[in-house]
Amino acid sequence: MAIVAEQPSTSATHSFGPAVALSCRECGERYELGPRFACDFCFGPLEVAYSFGTVTRASIEQGPNNIWRYAALLPVPANVRDLPNMNPGMTPLVRADRLAAELGLRSLHVKDDSGNPTHSFKDRVVAIAVEAARTFGFTTLSCSSTGNLAGAVGAAAARAGFKSCVFIPAGLEEAKVVMAAVYGGRLVAIDGNYDDTNRFCSELIGDDAGQDWGFVNVNLRPYYGEGSKTLAYEIAEQLGWRLPAQIIIPIASGSQLTKIDKGFQELIALGLVEDTPYKIFGAQATGCSPVAKAWENGHDVIQPVKPDTIAKSLAIGNPADGPYVLDICKRTGGAVAHVDDTEIVDAIRLLARTEGVFAETAGGVTTGVLRKLLADGLLDPDAETVVLNTGDGLKTLNAVQGAGVTATIKPSLDAFRAAGLA
Amino acid sequence: MAIVAEQPSTSATHSFGPAVALSCRECGERYELGPRFACDFCFGPLEVAYSFGTVTRASIEQGPNNIWRYAALLPVPANVRDLPNMNPGMTPLVRADRLAAELGLRSLHVKDDSGNPTHSFKDRVVAIAVEAARTFGFTTLSCSSTGNLAGAVGAAAARAGFKSCVFIPAGLEEAKVVMAAVYGGRLVAIDGNYDDTNRFCSELIGDDAGQDWGFVNVNLRPYYGEGSKTLAYEIAEQLGWRLPAQIIIPIASGSQLTKIDKGFQELIALGLVEDTPYKIFGAQATGCSPVAKAWENGHDVIQPVKPDTIAKSLAIGNPADGPYVLDICKRTGGAVAHVDDTEIVDAIRLLARTEGVFAETAGGVTTGVLRKLLADGLLDPDAETVVLNTGDGLKTLNAVQGAGVTATIKPSLDAFRAAGLA
C-alpha cells in the first residue's frame, strides 16, 4: 500500500495535490513525480505514493457531484474542479432487488458506470491522466485502446484543448470507432490485436514522433490508474460509508481490480469506513481468460493468450496486472472465474430485463460470473454484493443482435389483433 | 400557471405529493387526479395543478442527486426516492468555453442530458409517469415513440416491474430499436410515421386491449410532462440559483419547451431564484419545422407537415403544444428557428470537437440553431446562454457516418511514418 507518512514536498497548491512521489510496486524505489511508468532498477510498475491530509466524510460530501469530491485522495491539483475536464463519476449504484430475487441473493447493487460522459469507466482514469498531461506540458493525448478508452481520450482532449492521436486494433465495434473519431482527433487502426497495438505505442513513446505526447495508459499510467480508485470510494460512500462484503470486477489489464482494492484499503486507513472483510472476485470472458486459467491451475504467473471473445473491451491477452489480481483475490478470499460468449449475452439480457440496465459485453461478463459463482457456491447469497457494469450496451449492439421488434403492423386495431398482440 | 393557492386534498403522504388536481390549460376546468389527459368540455390538454409547501434551496440541496431532489415540486409520493425507478437527472451542465470562443459568445453552457440512464431526457418524463402508473394500478407501460422514449419506457418498466408494450414508427435507427427491445418488453413497429403511431395509440387506449395500460404520453401525459420541469430546476440550480438569459430548446411536440418555462416560473414564484428576464428559443429541423414556419409567417396555428429529416427524435409533424410554444417564445422575447440536415451534422461535429459532447441529431439541431441565431443577430452574444442536448450520439451514428479511422497501419514506426502520421 502506497500510503506514506511523509510530508508533501511542496505547498498545498502542488499540482499533484496529496501525491508525493512515484514508487515501484516491486522494489519500493521512489522517484519524483514525472511522466515515467517503470522502475529503472527492476522494471516494476510505478504507482503514486501519497501523504494524505485530513479527509473526512463531511469534507467529501461537500464536494462536487463527480470524482473531484475525492480530489484530496488523488494526484490532482486542489482547484481541479475549475479546470476543463469531463468530470466523470458519481454514477448510479443501482439497488438491484429484482435481479437479486431472480438469482437468490439477499442484497445486490449494480455499480453502473455507463452513466459516465462517454459511457464507460474509462472517463475516470482519463480525467486524472488529463491533469497530469496538463502539468507536464504535453500537447497531444494518446493511448492504445480496445475501444472505450479511445472515446474517452478523444472527448477529454476536445474538452481540455489537447490534440489527440488514438490507436485501436482494427475490427472494433462501429459505435466505438465512430465515438472515437467524432471528436476530431486522429484515430489510427493497427493491423493486429490490442497487445500488438500496445507494443507499438511503447515503441512510439521512445521515438521523436512521440515527443510531447502523453500516452494516458503508458507514460501517464501511474496517474491514470488512480482514477479507478474512485469506483471504490463511490461504492463505499453510496452504500452509506460501508464496504461491500463481495464485489465482482471485470479483468482486462487487471489494473481496475487492483485499484479498487487500493481504494478500499485507503478508506480503511483513513478511518472513513470500518475495517470489515471484503472478497474481490475477478471476471473474464472464456475467450480471453489468462488470469482465470492461472487461478484455476494455481499458478502465480500468467500465460498470455490470443483473445477470441465478443467482450472486446476485456480482450487483453497479456494482462500487465494479472499477478497482482491473483494476489488480491487470494488475500481477500475471492476468486477469478470466466463465462463464455453465450453466457455473456444471456447475462446482458438478464440485467436489462430485471433492472433496466443495458450493459456492454463487459457487464455481461461480470453479471454472468456473478451467476456462475453463485451456482458454484463461491458467493455467499446472504452477503452484501456489488457487481460492476463498466460500459454501455449501445457500444456493443451486435452482442444482442437478436433484439428487435416483436411485430410490424399497420396502424389499426384490426392489425393489432391479427398479429396476436391484443 | 398552475400554482394554486389551495390546500392539498389529503395528507403529506398523498401519492401525488404537492399535486392537488388536473386543470385544463384552455378553460381552467378542474378534475380529480386520475389517468385522464383531455378536458371533457373543451378538449384542451390537462395539466397538473399544485399547492406547494415550503421549498427552500437548502431543502432541495439536501435531496438525492437526481430529479427526486425536486420531489416537493412534482406529482410524486414523498417516499419516491425509495421506490424502484430509473432515478434520472442531475446531468452535467457543461461550461462550454471552447465552443463559446468559437462562436463569439461570452458565456455558454450545454445542458447534456445524454447522461441520463438511457441517455436521453425521456428518462425524466418516464420517471414521473411510472409513479403515476403505479398509483393507478396499471400493469403495462406503453407509449408511442420516435425512439428515445421507447428505450426509456422499456428500461423503466423493467426496473419497476411492469410489463411493457411500446410502439414506434418503422425505420428507426438500429441503436434505438435494439435499446427499446433489449429490456424484454414487446416492441411493435407501425407501418407509418410517428403521427400515425400516435393516432393508433389513442385508438388503442379506448379499446379493451388497452385496459390496464398506462400510455406514458397519452393517458399519463399530464404527469409525464411534468418531468421536463426538472430540466429548468437543474439548470437554475447548477448556475448557482439563477435563470439563464437565453436558452435554446428543441421542439418535437413542444411539451418540453412549455414545461421548462413552467419550471422557471415556479422557481420565481417560490422565491428560489430572482425574477430576471429570460428568452426562450425553439429549435427545429428544417425537414420538420411546422412551428418555425408558423413563427416565420406570424401565424398562431400550426400547419402539420410530413417529416423528412435525420433528426428523427424531433420528427413530429403535428406538434400538440406548438401554439403554446409560439406564445412562450413571443412572451419571453425569443424566437423559433430551424436548421437543415447538413447544418445539423456540422453542429454535432462542432460540439464534439470543441467540448467532447457527442450529441444526438436533436443536439445538432439546438447547437445549429444557436449558431444561426447568433449569425442572424437574434441572440445577444454577451448574455448568459444555455443550449440543450437532449440525447446521445451513439443512438444516431448514421448522422456522422463519415467519422472513422484516419489510417490503418501495421504496428511499426516505419508504417507510422509512411502513412504520414509522424
What is the terminal-to-terminal distance of chain A?
62 Å
| Proportion of helical residues of chain A | 25-40%
Oligomerization state? homodimer
Mean pLDDT of chain A: 94
CATH level 3 topology of the largest domain in chain A: Rossmann fold
* Strand elements of chain A, count: 14
- Computed CA radius of gyration of chain A, to the nearest angstrom: 21 Å
GO molecular function (chains A, B): L-serine ammonia-lyase activity; threonine deaminase activity; threonine synthase activity
EC number (chains A, B): 4.2.3.1
Cofactor (chains A, B): pyridoxal 5'-phosphate
Domain Tryptophan synthase beta chain-like PALP (chains A, B): 88-391
Description:
The structure is a homodimer. Chain A has about 425 residues and is an alpha/beta fold. The first copy, chain A, has three domains: about 60 residues; about 200 residues, Rossmann fold (3-Layer(aba) Sandwich), CATH 3.40.50; about 100 residues, Rossmann fold (3-Layer(aba) Sandwich), CATH 3.40.50. In chain A, about 35% of the residues lie in helices and about 15% in strands. In chain A, α4 links the parallel β6 and β7. β8 of chain A pairs parallel with β14 of chain B. Chains A, B: One of its GO terms (molecular function) is L-serine ammonia-lyase activity.
Keywords, separated by commas or semicolons:
homodimer, 422 residues, alpha/beta, Rossmann fold, 6-stranded mixed β-sheet, 4-stranded parallel β-sheet, 35% helix, globular, disordered N terminus
